[in-house]
Design brief:
This protein has one domain: Aminopeptidase, CATH 3.40.630. Helix content is 32%, strand content 38%. The protein is built from 6 helices and 8 strands. Strands 1-2-3-4-5-6-8-7 form an 8-stranded mixed sheet.
């Protein structure tokens, strides 16, 4: 469990499954830039019973704000060669009344601290729809650097859309934390 100023990033619990099912399968909770993932309740329960959504290389966690469930945080660990690992992260604030309140920044900072503090990962990256300026601003405020545009990167809402990719290196995060 990771906590900062009322924002909590935690493991999924069994009593979260109904909310998780709704967030993954109802478009209004996914926001403008996130596609539906269409999971069955049986599939979600099976994954929960298998690894609690905390697999060796991919995690799905709940985000709370002042004890209210507000969203999901994704982490994927990728190998890029010679046992070098990179983490790819993603956040969805599913409850629209909790968007644009600083929750995303706090949750992202918690995850960055956790990954760099506990894993031999030197790079964390995130991509988002080119039009998702809110997500881009969160990444920039967390110290991520823009790297480029991924043309036609994802299929969403009936068309291929461009994404932008950002990253932060462990040394950059350490400098940012030391200079705060």
């Amino acid at each position: 469990m990771l906590e900062k100023d009322g924002v909590l990033v935690r493991c999924i619990e069994e009593n979260d499954l109904k909310q998780l099912y709704q967030w993954l399968n109802v478009q209004k909770y996914r926001g403008t830039f996130q596609s539906l993932q269409l999971n069955s309740m049986a599939g979600l329960r099976k994954r929960f019973e298998s690894d609690g959504f905390l697999g060796a290389n991919n995690w799905l966690m709940m985000v709370e704000n002042n004890k209210a469930l507000v969203g999901l945080f994704y982490v994927n660990i990728k190998y890029t060669g010679n046992d070098v690992k990179v983490a790819s992260i993603g956040l969805v604030i599913c409850q629209s009344n909790h968007r644009s309140k600083g929750i995303g920044k706090k949750a992202t900072e918690l995850i960055i601290d956790y990954i760099f503090g506990n894993y031999s990962i030197h790079r964390i990256e995130a991509d988002t729809d080119i039009e998702n300026l809110s997500a881009q601003n969160v990444l920039k405020r967390c110290g991520f650097s823009y790297e480029g545009t991924l043309r036609g990167y994802r299929y969403h809402s009936g068309k291929y859309v461009d994404h932008v990719i950002f990253s932060i290196l462990k040394s950059e995060w350490k400098n940012k934390k030391e200079n705060v």
